[in-house]
Amino acid sequence: MPSPVHHTFGPHVDSAYLRKVLAMSYVPWRYVHGTAPLRLKNVLREKFRAEPVLFSSGRESLYALLKAIGVKPGEEIIVQGYTCVVVPNAIHAAGGVPIYADIDPDTLNLTTDTVRPLLTPRTRAVICQHTFGIPADVKGLRKLCDEKGVVLIEDMAHVLPDHKGPDIGFHGDYLILSFGRDKAISGISGGAVMSRHPRTTAALLELERTAIHDSWWNVARLLEYATRMHSIVRPLSGTPLFRPAVWLLQKLKMIVPVLTSDEKHGHMSHVLKKIPNACAELALSSLMKLRALNERRRTLSAFFARHGRAHNWPMLAGAAADLPLQKFPLFVLNARAKRAILKQENIHLDDGWTGCVICPEDIDLTETGYEQGMDPAAERVCRQILSLPTHPTMTLIQAERLARRIDMLLKEKQA
Ligand SMILES: Cc1ncc(COP(=O)(O)O)c(C=O)c1O
Q1: CA dist 196 → 7, 57, 199, 284, 390 (Å)
Q2: Which residues pair with 128 in a beta bridge?
Q3: For residue range 323-376, what is the model confidence (pLDDT) as tens digits?
């Protein structure tokens, strides 16, 4: 059985990543406390020319930011349809109301045209998410937000620019970074707000100071994610033992879930946690390799774009440039059925970003404030999208195999 093609089986976990986790297991007293958060801050500050404040996830960072800017009950935060449920959850937790702007199907991002009609005197902020690493029109949004006196937040969970771009991360009042397991860089968990306004920075630093430490056991469990993915999930995928093994790992709580059941039902904890030292150490090591990580993403994205053009794949116009994409999106008919066929061949393209405008599909949509029909383009996208992996542990050989398989699927009758 060839090695699995996947989005979620430890996309950052290569042998260097494992060695780093192993090295940390020799100094377990540094799991929670240590100097890594400070060192990570120094690098982030220099890179983004903004003041970093760290928490244990991107969603907590967004919640903390909305608290720090003093969102009042009922104030509106414009966010795009086709986003992760943790984004509206953080808005609700801060007392705000998410307002969903439709996306441009060529970039999967909101635009000035979709945001403008939604601006009201109650609008407090616009969150511009560079979906899958495709840059949003952040300059246009900056201009619009300046005209209306609205805060612009760039959500950089999916991409961090390097010396080759893209030109994002320098126009927002604030940036949200995630160091989650499948994000631009990975500390397995962790997140940051980058602030360009001293008064908000002071409020954020106070929230960071009073945030609680995660427990040692929880950090140990987080770190085990790397070995579990590398030594159990990947080797067993494609074998009959895969499903029972994953079921058991989840039942025994040996893998920390990305979303809790409460989060799937619209409720985010109001407790802020500090980034664990071990996660900051991993995120820092990942950040120091950003050029190489992005280069691999560029190589795979360019390969899929080239192959796709040659074989008439239904691709996004906005994704065809030289970008370090977090994943490479296609639009196909019967996307769900195609994913099911591929899964039998050890190609796992379920990434949670399908089937519902607020992802993943098994959340309680009524709690998000989104109503069917609000964002027609986003609804079409999530039905038809088929995303191909471009992560750091995906190889070109796997990409070639996947591309050939996609060619065959697209030629079949129902395509
Ligand atoms: C667009 C977007 N923003 C923010 C987040 C939050 O990141 P984290 O998982 O670190 O809380 C996510 C997570 O999936 C995301 O997809």
Answers
A1: 33, 20, 9, 21, 31
A2: 154
A3: 999 999 999 999 999 999 999 999 999 999 999 999 999 999 999 999 999 999
Alpha helices in 164-289 (DSSP H): 198-210, 216-228, 234-236, 242-251, 261-264, 277-288
178 Cβ closer than 6 Å to some ligand 1 atom:
yes
> 53 CB under 6 A from ligand 1?
no
pLDDT tens for 141-189 read 999 999 999 999 999 999 999 999 999 999 999 999 999 999 999 999 9
Q: Ligand 1: which residue has its CA nearest to atom 10?
A: 58
- Would you say 279 and 186 are in contact if contact means Cβ atoms under 8 Å apart? no
User: What is the C-alpha to C-alpha distance for residues 386 and 397, in angstroms, rounded to an integer?
Assistant: 19
Which of 347, 303, 312 has the alpha carbon at shortest distance from 331?
312
Nearest of 112, 147, 109, 153 to residue 131 by alpha carbon = 109
Question: What residues contact residue 27 under an 8 Å CB cut-off, 6+ apart?
Answer: none
pLDDT per residue as tens digits for the range 192-229: 999 999 999 999 999 999 999 999 999 999 999 999 99
Does ligand 1 have an atom closer than 6 angstroms to the CB of 195? no
Neighbouring C-beta atoms of residue 257, cutoff 10 Å: 10
Q: How far is CA 340 from the centre of its chain?
A: 23
User: How many of the other CB atoms lie within 10 Å of CB of 219?
Assistant: 24
- Segment (H or E) for 194: strand 191-195
Residue 414 has pLDDT above 60, yes or no: no
The pairing of beta strand 123-129 with beta strand 109-110: unpaired
Domains and CATH numbers, the chain: 15-210 (3.40.640.10), 290-406 (3.90.1150.10)
Q: Which residue has the tokens 């612009």?
A: 152
Pair type for strands 174-178 and 191-195: antiparallel
Nearest atom within ligand 1 for CA of residue 178: 10
Does the beta carbon of 191 lie inside 6 Å of ligand 1? yes
Tokens at residue 5, please?
């093609």
Rounded to two decimals, the pTM is: 0.97
Beta strands in 305-368 (DSSP E): 327-331, 347-348, 358-359
